[in-house]
Amino acid sequence: MNVYLDNNATTRVAPEVLEAMLPYFKDEYGNPSSMHSVGGRVKKEIEAARAKVAELIGADPQEIVFTSCGTESDNTAIRGALEASSGKKHIITSRVEHPAVLSTVRYLEKRGYSLTELPVDRQGMIDMSEYEAAFREDTGLVSIMWANNETGVIFPIHEMAEIARGKGVVFHTDAVQAAGKLKIDMKDTPADLLSISGHKLHAPKGIGVLYVRRGTPMTPFMLGGHQESGRRAGTENVPYIVGLGRAAELAIAGMAEENTRIKSLRDKLEKALLEKCPDAMLNGHPEHRLPNTTNISFEFVEGEAILLMLNREGIAASSGSACTSGSLEPSHVMRAMGVPFTAAHGSIRFSLSRYNEEPEMDYVAEKLPPIIKRLRELSPFVKK
Ligand code: PLP
User: Fold this and answer.
1) Highest-scoring range by mean pLDDT, 48-62, 74-88, 330-344
2) Residues designated catalytic
3) pLDDT top residue among 330 and 301
4) DSSP label at 292?
5) The pLDDT of residue 323 is above 60
6) Residue 131: is its pLDDT beyond 80?
7) How confident is the model at residue 178 (pLDDT cuts 50, 70, 90)?
8) Is the CB of 145 under 6 A from ligand 1?
9) Cα 198 to Cα 22, 25, 70, 180, 342, distances in angstroms
10) 15-253 maps to which CATH number?
C-alpha cells in the first residue's frame, strides 16, 4: 500500500484543478495584457480566479495579488511593507516561522533592522503578554504565521493582529498552512498582509498569493510591467492562476466536511501510535492546531531512520530534523519548543489531506510500531 502523509510539504494536484488548467496551455494562450480578444478571454479567467481566492479568505478581489509561491509572498510582504514604512526599523516575529520569513527578517537584521524573535512554550504557543511587550516606538512590522508547518499549532492571529493595529503597526501573517484548511475571513481579521501557497491546497507548485489590505503601504518586490495593478510585475502565470482559482473553489465547497473527516482520521492515527509505541509523545498544542497534522516524537531513535523504514513500506511522512553540515540537528521549531534532545531527533510529522482514507491509518498504525521497536534495539541511547 502507498500512503502519502506529507501534505504539509506539498499536496497532490486535484484532478479538477488539472482539468481546469489544461485549456490555458493549449488553446487559451493569450497574454492577458493584450488588447485583442485572445488576451481578453484569458484576462476574464484571471479575474474569475481572483474572485474565488478572495472568497476563500473573505477578501475583496482587488486585495489579491498573484505571486510565484509562498516564499515570494512572504518576502514581498516583509520587505515591501518595511520599505514603505517611513523608516521604522524594528520587526517582531516568532522563532518558529518558516525559513521564508526567518531568513528574510534575519537578512534584514544584518542590514540595519532590529529584530525580536518571540519564543514559544513547550506546546509551541506564544505568551501574549510577551508579544505585547515586544512593541516599540520604531516597530514597523509584525510577521507571525497563522499555523505552523511542523506541528500544525495555530496562533491567535485575530487577537495578535488587533494588538498590532491598536499600535498602528502593519501585521503580516504567513497563512500558507492555514489557507484551505481553516476558515479565514479577512473582513474580521485585522491583518494587513497574508501569504498563501497554491501547492498546499491541491493547486500546483509555483503559484502563490499575497493578500494586501486596501490602503496598506507596500513597495512592489518585482518591478517591470503593470500587471497585478502595479503590485507584482511579470506576465501572469495564467494556467496556474486558473488552477488556484479552482482549488480555492474546491476548498470553499468541501472544507467543513473534509476537516471533520480528516481530523477524525488524524486522531485515530495519533491515538494508535501513542498507545502502541512506548516513549512516544505529541509535539505541539493538542487542541490549537490544524486538523490534518500530528507531530510525534519517538524517543531514542533518529527521525531519518524512521522515515527510511517507513518509505520501504510505502509510507511517506516527514521528519522534524534536518541534516545540516553532516550533523543531525533537530529542527528550529523543536528546539524553540524545548523538546528534549532525545525526542527532538525522533520527531515525525504526519500530515493528511482529503485524499487519505481510513485503511491507510490502520496500515501506518500496524507498520510503524515494529519499526520503532527495531530501531530502539539498535539505538546506542537505549539501555538494553
Ligand atoms: N510558509 C510556510 C508556513 C510553509 O509551510 C511553506 C512551505 O513549506 C512556505 C511558507 C513556502 O511556500 P512555497 O513552497 O510556496 O514557497
Assistant:
1) 48-62
2) 323
3) 301
4) T
5) no
6) yes
7) very high
8) yes
9) 17, 18, 8, 10, 35
10) 3.40.640.10
Which helix (H) or strand (E) segment holds residue 294: the answer is: strand 293-298
Distance from C-alpha of 366 to C-alpha of 377, rounded to nearest angstrom: 18
List, for residues 345-355, the tens digit of each pLDDT value.
899 999 999 99
Residue 70 beta carbon below 6 angstroms from any ligand 1 atom: yes
259-378: CATH topology is: Aspartate Aminotransferase, domain 1 (3.90.1150)
What is the pLDDT, as a whole number, of residue 382?
A: 73
Average pLDDT rounded to a whole number, residues 125-147: 98
Query: What's the CA gap between 334 and 322, in Å, rounded?
Result: 11
Instruction: Compute φ and ψ for 276, nearest 5 degrees.
Output: -85, -25
Q: 141-151 pLDDT, tens per residue?
A: 999 999 999 99
Strand partners, 324: 327
Q: Give residue limits of the domains in the chain.
A: 15-253, 259-378
SS3 content of the chain, % helix, strand, coil (to 5): 40, 20, 40
Alpha-carbon gap, residue 61 to 209, rounded angstroms = 12
d(CA 132, CA 246): 39
Relative to the CA of 10, which ligand 1 atom is closest?
Answer: 8
CA angle 231, 236, 241 (to 5 degrees): 105
pLDDT band at residue 87 using 50, 70 and 90 as cut-offs? confident
Regarding the beta carbon of 149 and ligand 1, being less than 6 Å apart is answered yes
CB 9 within 8 A of CB 349: no
What is the chain's length? 384
Give the DSSP H/E element, type plus range, for residue 72: helix 70-83
Q: Which residues of 225-241 are buried (b: 16+ CB within 10 A; e: fewer)?
A: eebbeebbeeebbbbbb
Ligand 1: centre distance to CA 150 (Å): 11
- Positive or negative, the Cα torsion across 218, 224, 226, 227? negative
What is the pLDDT confidence band of residue 158, given thresholds at 50, 70 and 90? very high
Ligand 1 atom with least separation from CA of 74: 10
Three-state secondary structure call for residue 126: coil
